[in-house]
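Quick question, first post here. What does this chain look like in 3D?
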Amino acid sequence: MLDINKVKGFLMAPTETFRASKGDSLGAAFRFYTVLLIIWTILAGIVWVTMSVWAFQDALARIANMGFFGDMLAKALADSLGFVVALNIFALYAFFLISLVGVFFVGFFWHVFALLFGAKRELRQTIKTTMYASTPFFLLGWIPYIAVIGWLWYLVLLVLGLSEMQEMSTGEAALAVVVPIILVLIGALLWGAVIAMLMAGIVGIWT
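> Answer (accepted):
Ran it through. Tokens below.
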């Protein structure tokens, strides 16, 4: 079962709650994380399926209004609604499995940078921090647009959690979170630039 008091603690008094959670086992943290993940998956599933069905039906209506051939195409595509729903359910299931296992790899990723900036405790504490810091995202991440707030809140809790669980200063913990994000963004920009130049070169060859 979900520990509601712990959920409230991470949302309302995160520093004190992380401090009190230092002695939690990794299994207890993982169970807490898994219950929240299940709740998110169910709520996100309802939203995703509802929105995809609405968008699909709206698209069919627009196609049907394009004339005779549009009407024929809309009727032909009408039977694809089940596929759209199944695709959303499959995506959610894949996200669930990836998140269930991936949290350990994400925890390891944060731990590498935490060590770089002064972490004093073992990997287990960082993985627990990653699991507990996910609380606001799982509570808000299923809501369109509001999910961004949940993700930003996750990063804030990650900083506070690393500070407590790894006995780092708040500044050191902030660097351990911000620096890898900046590096990932730089990498994405460089990759985008490489792809853009590659595409420009291909276009140049054929023109």
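The chain is about 85% helix and 0% strand.
Residues 4-205 form one domain.
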